UniProtKB/TrEMBL annotation:
<keyword id="KW-0175">Coiled coil</keyword>
<feature type="compositionally biased region" description="Basic and acidic residues">
    <location>
        <begin position="43"/>
        <end position="55"/>
    </location>
</feature>
<feature type="coiled-coil region">
    <location>
        <begin position="158"/>
        <end position="192"/>
    </location>
</feature>
<feature type="region of interest" description="Disordered">
    <location>
        <begin position="31"/>
        <end position="59"/>
    </location>
</feature>
<protein>
    <submittedName>
        <fullName>Uncharacterized protein</fullName>
    </submittedName>
</protein>
Length: 212
């Protein structure tokens, strides 16, 4: 009895492994919807012992290791990893028109204006114009209209100063003449009417008489 039990347990383990291998082989033959060749199934059966060793090392069960290998194989055959350049920054800036946004849902804020540099690749085309005769009256008149003669400006300024000074002197002389006529008129009235005829200046006249 004692010697038969280990044999029975080992036979049951082998039967379980055989069932799991049959299940894994059936999955491999289906291949997640992709046709598999006989060579692939044979290779899977040959890798069974390797799977057992991996399961013992990783602590996983045999069917888990098998399933992981099948999944890795399927992904390696059907997926292609492509490394794309990071272009989202340039795309966003082109779509936004160079607008700075504090948050993605925020309205446009500061607008960055692009520096538009005018590059002149060709020389400017200068069309031929009329020939200018420097000795003509028209040319001399045009030159005189835009030029300034320093001596002429000084002469005009001096003339304007003299006119202003003459007007000032004439105005001052007229004021003095008017005051003189007024004094003569008052003196004549004093002789005719006496000093009491004008009360507003009587006091002033009395003070002047005392001083004399």
């Amino acid at each position: 009895m004692g010697s038969g039990s280990p044999a029975n347990s080992s036979s049951s383990d082998e039967d379980g492994d055989t069932e799991w291998r049959a299940a894994i082989d059936s999955i491999a033959s289906v291949g997640f919807g992709l046709p598999q060749s006989n060579g692939t199934a044979t290779r899977e059966s040959r890798d069974a012992h390797t799977g057992e060793e991996a399961s013992q090392k990783s602590g996983l069960k045999l069917y888990q290791v098998k399933a992981q290998k099948l999944l890795d194989e399927h992904l390696r055959k059907n997926l292609e990893v492509v490394r794309m350049p990071d272009l989202h920054i340039n795309q966003d800036s082109s779509l936004d028109g160079g607008v700075i946004r504090l948050f993605s849902s925020a309205p446009p804020g500061i607008t960055l204006k692009e520096d538009l540099k005018i590059v002149q690749n060709k020389r400017p085309r200068i069309l031929p114009g009329e020939e200018t005769d420097e000795k003509s009256k028209k040319f001399k008149r045009q030159i005189s209209s835009v030029t300034v003669d320093g001596t002429q400006v000084i002469a005009l300024a001096k003339e304007a100063y003299e006119k202003s000074l003459a007007r000032y002197k004439a105005k001052e002389a007229a004021a003095k003449e008017k005051a003189k006529r007024e004094d003569e008129r008052v003196a004549e009235l004093k002789k005719i009417r006496g000093e009491m005829w004008l009360p507003s200046i009587a006091k002033q006249m009395q003070e002047e008489a005392r001083r004399k």
